[in-house]
Write a structure and sequence with these properties.
It comes from Kitasatospora terrestris. InterPro entries: Lambda_DNA-bd_dom_sf (IPR010982). This is Transcriptional regulator. About 30% of the residues are buried. The chain has a 4-stranded antiparallel sheet. It folds into 2 domains: about 120 residues, no CATH class; about 80 residues. With about 210 residues, it is α+β, with helices and mostly antiparallel strands. Helix 8 packs antiparallel against helix 9. Helices cover about 50% and strands about 10% of the residues.
Length: about 210
Amino acid sequence: MSTDGWKNFGRYGANLDPGNIHGKFALARALEDALERLIIEGGIKSPATSRRGLMARLRYLTETKGGAQALADAGVTVTPATVKAWRRGKQRPRPATLEAIDTAYWNLRAANVLANSGAFKQHLNRAGRGTRVEIHPVNQDVVDEPRRRENLRVRTFQVRYVWDDAVDALTAGDTDKLEEIWDDIIADMDSDWGAYTYVSHIGLGA
């Protein structure tokens, strides 16, 4: 399949697999996945059902701005006195309330991480070392057989200098900018770069 065929995506059937998408959308998904990992990996490890996990969540929710609202949004409507009793170990939340506290914690942590895009940019930039990108080509099983390119393979390489703009574009929902960034990324490939305009998956080593 010629590079021009990839530019005219779907001419030979590649669009029949919904998993084959433009790189800008796959890049957005990969960034969202990396952000979710950052939120989870930097969060409280102990489960909310353990005393340690519960105390850590309550501390975060009562000492961090927005915690009271996060609890209310999750359906926890107890009085401050009850929360204080929980923190002192004099009372214990019911199972459903424990689940709601856990939800409130993760929602607040996610909101705070999202509000501080600089930390995510730093995570991806890695002090100038950049982030490893793994690119999976489109599934060609749905492509007309004479037009398939058997030499396409998973490509992996280090990407630098694009992450600040990529995070800003993701936050703003700017798909045009994401497309521009994706074009910059694949431009560093060999003459087959056009075959990676559309992909089946992008993974980030972050």
